[in-house]
Write a structure and sequence with these properties.
CATH architecture of the largest domain: Alpha-Beta Barrel
Shape: globular
Bound molecules: pyridoxal-5'-phosphate
Number of helices: 13
Helix content: 25-40%
CATH topology of the largest domain: TIM Barrel
CATH superfamily of the largest domain: Alanine racemase
Number of domains: 2
Strand content: 15-25%
Radius of gyration: 25 Å
């Protein structure tokens, strides 16, 4: 005799979806049966769940859309792929095939770019901490070093003495572009005069050659006009330096920060409404450049777009393992992926799609992961229909900052696959097992089992 699953009844307020001008609000009825023609069933059967999936077609399309939008306004443009956004080798290789150079912020990222065959002079080296041996290698390779602070000026001058030649550098600025909180920890502040002092210090040192100016105003910037303000301030500063010291700016690097079609938590409007198109950013930057630059030689423009290039191309498939009713009446689902894999779910409420049509009344639900920690919640406040064990949720966009910030915490990291333009699915990072967790551990002999007895 089979035993029926019993669940105590609850009184549930009927909700036909929250009142919202923009259709179905927080309710999820959208179905995704396939990604780029490959069914979710097939993907999970072959590569397991949870599973990260990337669409090569979408990455290339996104790259071209961003490049075309900006280069239409300012042709002397190079994109620099921001490694920290996602440095899985296959994804970096696609960006480089499309024509991007590399932008790195650490020794490790620098080594990764070099290992992928990117020559030093096509690497922009940013970041507040550049350890000496790696900095020396980058200098000798001809990398574009962006100076972050005075101590780094001293480090670079010491390197000039060591290698017997002058070093070309860019200066990282921070400035008020109307974005709060202001990213003021990196580089030299413009408005306070710190940046001008740094330039004087560089000139007095006589060892470094100032080549360009850099500034990254923040991430997921929703105001395209902020970039116009940034450009105006950077160009005026460049001309101020030209007048005072004969400096001729070879490049302007505006950093990244362009948003993807994602949704920050506590944002009322859906991304289709809240997030300006990339064309608006391109227009604001292009117009500001032509307004402020004097006729003559136009400097090279670098953009270090990260999330806008890859976020939408990434999906996370996760499977419902259990459902329960919490004591406060909330419907809860246990998924096989938690914040260990979906780190950005702390700030973003990604769209969720189901792998099948589901009938029944939607309820305000919480989806939590396998970590046995109260903070392991990957979604809450979404109206979900009753989901059976085995139902798959597809989270998107998740391509930015998850495969770099994920954690080796409690669970293994799963397979990551790439669906090629021909529909072929390839593993680009294998699922971990215990050997990945213990690889670097050393167990002293006296602690091995049996020794203490
Ligand atoms: C210096 C620099 N450039 C580029 C990026 C990429 O930013 P985003 O992903 O917002 O485009 C970052 C990210 O923080 C950064 O610090």
């Amino acid at each position: 005799m089979s035993i029926e699953h019993y669940e105590a009844p609850v009184i549930q307020k009927l909700q036909g979806g929250f009142m919202n001008t923009y259709a179905n609000g927080n309710g999820v009825r959208r179905v995704c049966k396939a990604i780029d023609g490959v069914t979710i069933d097939d993907l999970v059967e072959r590569f397991g769940s949870p599973l990260f999936v990337f669409s090569e077609q979408r990455i290339r399309q996104q790259y071209r859309e961003v490049y075309d939008a900006f280069s239409r306004h300012y042709p002397n443009l190079t994109l620099a792929w921001s490694y920290k956004t996602n440095y899985l080798s296959a994804l970096c290789a696609i960006m480089h095939q499309e024509g991007s150079i590399a932008e790195v912020v650490s020794d490790m990222e620098y080594a990764k770019a070099r290992a992928l065959g990117i020559p030093g002079d096509q690497i922009i080296y940013n970041g507040p901490y550049k350890p000496m041996p790696g900095l020396e290698r980058a200098v000798c390779d001809g990398a574009m070093i962006q100076v972050d602070h005075l101590d780094e000026i001293c480090d670079l001058e010491a390197l000039c003495d060591k290698i017997g030649r002058r070093i070309r550098v860019g200066l990282r600025l921070n400035l008020d572009a109307g974005i709060f909180p202001q990213w003021s920890r990196f580089g030299f502040n413009l408005e306070s005069g710190q940046a001008l002092e740094a330039v004087k210090r560089i000139l007095n040192g006589g060892k470094l050659i100032l080549q360009g100016l850099h500034c990254h105003i923040g991430t997921f910037i929703l105001d395209p006009k902020a970039y116009a303000r940034q450009v105006e301030k950077m160009v005026h500063f460049a001309y101020q330096l030209e007048e005072q010291s004969g400096f001729s700016v070879e490049y302007l690097d505006l950093g990244g920060g362009f948003p993807s079609r994602n949704r920050l938590k506590a944002t009322y409007l859906p991304p289709e409404v809240a997030v300006p198109g990339i064309g608006e950013f391109a227009e604001n930057i292009g117009d500001a450049l032509y307004r402020t630059l004097r006729p003559g030689k136009f400097p090279k423009l670098y953009l270090e777009a990260g999330r806008a290039m890859i976020d939408e191309a990434g999906y996370l498939i996760t499977t419902i393992q259990a459902s329960k009713r919490l004591v406060d009446g909330t419907r809860a689902y246990v998924a096989d992926a938690g914040v260990n894999l979906l780190f950005t779910s702390f700030w973003y409420k990604m769209a969720i799609e189901l792998d099948r049509e589901v009938q029944g009344m939607s309820e305000n639900s919480v989806v939590y992961g396998p970590l046995c920690m109260n903070l392991d919640v990957i979604d809450e406040g979404t109206l979900l229909p009753p989901l059976k064990r085995g139902t798959r949720l597809i989270f998107n966009p998740v391509g930015a900052y998850n495969n770099t910030q994920w954690m080796q915490f409690i669970s293994y990291r799963p397979n990551v696959v790439l669906i090629g333009e021909n529909g072929q699915v390839e593993v680009i990072r294998e699922a971990e097992d215990l050997s990945d967790v213990t690889l670097r551990e050393r167990l002293p002999a006296r602690l091995t089992k049996g020794q203490s007895e």
